[in-house]
Amino acid sequence: MMSSLCFRFLVRSTICALFISNTIAVLASSISAQTPPSYKLPPRIVPDRFVSPDVTRTILNGATINHLMEGEVRSGVDFGEGRSENVTFNGTVELSNQLQQSITRNNVLIVEQRAEYLQLMTVLRKRELTLEQRRPYTMLGQHIQMSLTANCTFPETDPTRKCNYTPGLVIDRSSLDRAFLIPTRVRQTAKVGTMVSPETIAEMEKPGFQRGSSTEEVALDVLLINTGAYPGNQQTRSTRTDRQESLSYTPAALYSRVHQIVRANSREAAIARTIRGNGFVWDHQNLALNSALQLATEALPNVVPNLQGTDQAPNQNLNRNLLFAMNNARLPEGSLTLYHAGVGRAASPEKAPTDSLKLPKAFYSGVWIGLSPVVERSFSRSLGYELTSDRRILKQGGGEGGINDDIDFISVINNDRYSTNNLEDFYTQVYLSVFEHDADLVSRVRQVDRVRYSPHLSYVGNVTNADSVLRYYMGAILAESWNAYVGADFSRTTKTGWSYSFGGIGYLNPDYDYYSRLSAQLAKRVRLSDRASFSVGTRAVWAIDQDTRLQDIETTGQGSTIAVEARGSFLPFSIAFTRVFGDVLPNPIEGSSVIDMSLQVTPQVFLTGFVTLMDQKTSSNRYGVGLQWRLNNQATSPVLVFAWRNTLYDYGSDSFNRSIRVNNDTFSVGFRMGF
Asked: Which long-range contacts (CB under 8 A, 24 or more apart) does 289-295 make?
């Protein structure tokens, strides 16, 4: 235990030290830019069209923007059987944008951008899944009522009085267990040998079963609603299953400022970008901490690239690898940016190359600070019977009487036998009924996933070539359980059509969502003609330490997968086949086989569809179609999106070996537009 704690402390300390040192290295470049440069060509505002959108292309909280875009809007609604109707929205609006260009006296070209954006969006706050199964049963029950009184024979009793020879026991019907209708409390109203008053005797000798008088109950009255059950009832033999999924979204707003500087001399170019975000996501648990983090990022500097001047004129052939490197940084998925500062550097080509593979590699390193979603899962379950019919009497009988009636009754209490053959002036009541109910054995499972946005610090870097990218990163999510990580990945595409990638990430405190894993991919693409190609490949992900526990329940993880894929593209039609193999690695996605198809009907209309041939998962998207309709040929024109999918949920078999399945249809209608 002590060694584990020491190891974790060492890893945390190492990551903290590396993060701090790399952060200092990234931000140190801004220190050298405190002295304003002297200009050969003073800063002047340049028209937007004079600068390529590649120079200012930025990924901002999931939206890809550049200085030629004034904004974009994406909205949609999802609805269907067994799920809530949800409207989502994501809009980005440019508030201001200014480009300046200058040349210093030591021949450094400077292009500077300052822009402001407002983003309004909906983010997931809670997902609630409820599964209810009703299995039909026939429940059996009994009602036992009896008493025996006679002249007293017990020590210290008056032989001229009447005594009780059965215990006075009454089931407290208000104490029935709500789940299985079993008594949890029995009232003892009298003991064996209790002397009974004449008023009580007179009451009990009335026709029909009587417990005794209102002030003295001495009979045994036991009602057992559930003495056993068997599958099926008179109403149905089918198990009914109801699955309900509810998603709750909350609005978020972010005001972001982008400051980007590109510097180029005769030999190389450097680029620095600083993004500051101020926003609000309602999260009462982390509201104070997240607000404090936003205030703290305001004290961090704008990063400025440090580039020495030369005697020669600046080279304006900007290396495209440098621009790609800025956006190749690994940003946490689904997160919101509060501060992102990074610097890239690359040698500039002497002239525009005809072969992009001859471009020098570009280097980038940066710091990202933001808010990342952390899911807190809770789980509850219940099991019990619910009666669905009135009581049906199967058998009933009984009677009562005394010494002048033909009655024979024996009461055995603690091995003591009391018989009407040996008692004087007795009176007995014996009534018994056997009955049944229709009932449902109802099981309910409820899982609630609550999304919290927690502070997240990360150092990111990459080396970008025209045909390959090496990324490396480290960081920590400052949630309730502090989760540090470190990782790297490499991808490459060759001229001969081969592409491959591999990578890995390790977490200090892995959970269901953030866990250590290794991944690899290999594919080969063969070009058949200008409009036809074929590719085949394989991919694998190994979830090393995914935590699949949910409270005291072991759930099925879905982190590991091994798959093979084949795709044929014969424009305007393409078709793909994917085969996923389950049960090979720990925490696997179950095996499946899926065919995907797409068809470009017109330049504005694009159709997609899929069919699942086989799926071993408990939930399977069996088939579906999609439609994208661009209203005109412009890049920013409105696009309408329609989608439908059919999902089958398989919950095994019932007592009669019948499949328990739920079949739901889900529809999506969306809209997106740039301007």
From this structure: 289/455, 289/478, 290/371, 290/453, 290/455, 293/338, 293/369, 293/371, 293/455, 294/338
